[in-house]
Amino acid sequence: NAGVTQTPKFQVLKTGQSMTLQCAQDMNHNSMYWYRQDPGMGLRLIYYSASEGTTDKGEVPNGYNVSRLNKREFSLRLESAAPSQTSVYFCASSEGQLGNTIYFGEGSWLTVV
Amino acid sequence: RKEVEQDPGPFNVPEGATVAFNCTYSNSASQSFFWYRQDCRKEPKLLMSVYSSGNEDGRFTAQLNRASQYISLLIRDSKLSDSATYLCVPRTGRRALTFGSGTRLQVQP
Lengths: 113, 109
Prior knowledge:
The structure holds 2 protein chains of 2 kinds. Chain A has strands spanning 4-7, 10-13, 19-25, 31-37, 43-49, 56-57, 64-68, 74-78, 87-94, 102-104, 108-112. By secondary structure, chain A is an all-beta fold. In chain A, the strands form 2 sheets. In chain A, strands 2, 4, 5, 6, 9, 10 and 11 form a 7-stranded mixed beta sheet that branches. In chain A, strands 1-3-8-7 form a 4-stranded antiparallel beta sheet, with no helix packed on it. The radius of gyration of chain B is 13 Å and the shape is globular. The model of chain B has no long low-confidence stretch (mean pLDDT 91). Chains A and B meet through β4 and β5 of A and β4 and β5 of B.
């Protein structure tokens, strides 16, 4: 039982490049999330999916797109990376509709140069 | 005003000490609260849930003061392994959870 798995763990991008962060959960959770965390700051919600087939913007959605491919998978795409998107990205999931206990992946360290 | 405010710390305490952090929240409609723990360069993990006035789990006690809109986390008999950042998370309606920036605790031998 792997929980929440996200890839890649580390990535360096050049400004303007695009990439997709992949996330999958094996807990049969309905809700999935993408957060970013900058040094010394809290987690900020980028996008979330309360259930399969729905996605909603969070606090900082600009520059990102998401796809809830199926119940298990929720990907985050950066179409044209900018240095301001250098951050640690956490994918997460929870039971039910926006359940209280959120399970996080181990994080993806992204550097945009 | 931020939804959640926490003293970033760090709180430096010796092993065995009792330490408490406060978290203030701005939305009086918040119904329940959660404390998450995040180790350095790791993902956050749920430490404790608070649905009424408080909760206790071993050395950890959370107390909610709705009148003053804050929730506290008390850690007794601190261990080196308690060193982490503690994130306060209010639940308001059916919105996705938003996290505070956390309070860093460093327990020293």
